């Protein structure tokens, strides 16, 4: 999609890990998630400028829920780690 801005973010301690639950295998790859290390408020602030957001981790997802970007029922947990996506249309 032309003009879309993709934002991928994770809690720093999850970078490079693989989560497995049933048939789900979720790689938190540095190639996709690694970028600037920033404060939680800064990271969530970037959601305003993005059209597609992919996030994983207790801290980042909890903050996004608190800020109203994600409904709590839309959060998927893999090995107890929250994952959520935002798509603005």
What does this protein look like?
By secondary structure, this protein is α+β, with helices and mostly antiparallel strands. It has a single domain (6-87), classed as 2-Layer Sandwich (uncharacterized conserved protein from methanopyrus kandleri fold like), CATH 3.30.1860.10. It has helices spanning 30-33, 40-45, 58-66, and strands spanning 6-10, 18-21, 24-27, 52-56, 76-78, 81-87. It has a 4-stranded mixed sheet with strand order 1-4-6-5. Strands 2-3 form a two-stranded antiparallel ribbon. β5 and β6 (81-87) form a beta hairpin. It is globular. The protein starts with 5 loop residues before the first strand and ends with a strand.
List key phrases describing it.
single chain, alpha+beta, uncharacterized conserved protein from methanopyrus kandleri fold like, four-stranded mixed sheet, two-stranded antiparallel ribbon, 21% helix
Structural class designation: alpha+beta
Task: Report the uncertain regions.
Answer: none
What fraction of the residues are assigned to beta strands by DSSP? 25-35%
Number of strands: 6
- Annotated CATH topology: uncharacterized conserved protein from methanopyrus kandleri fold like
CATH superfamily label: uncharacterized conserved protein from methanopyrus kandleri domain like
According to CATH, what is the class?
Alpha Beta
Overall average residue pLDDT: 94
Oligomer: single chain
Query: What letter string, H or E per element, gives the SSE order?
Result: EEEHHEHEE
Main β-sheet: number of strands, strand sense, barrel status? 4 strands, mixed
How many domains is the backbone divided into? 1
Outline, from the CA principal axes? globular
Percentage of helical residues?
Answer: 10-25%
Please tally the helical runs, counting DSSP H or I stretches of 4 or more residues. Answer: 3
Task: Work out the radius of gyration.
Answer: 13 Å
> Looking across the biggest beta sheet, what order are the strands in?
1-4-6-5
CATH architecture: 2-Layer Sandwich
Distance between the termini: 11 Å
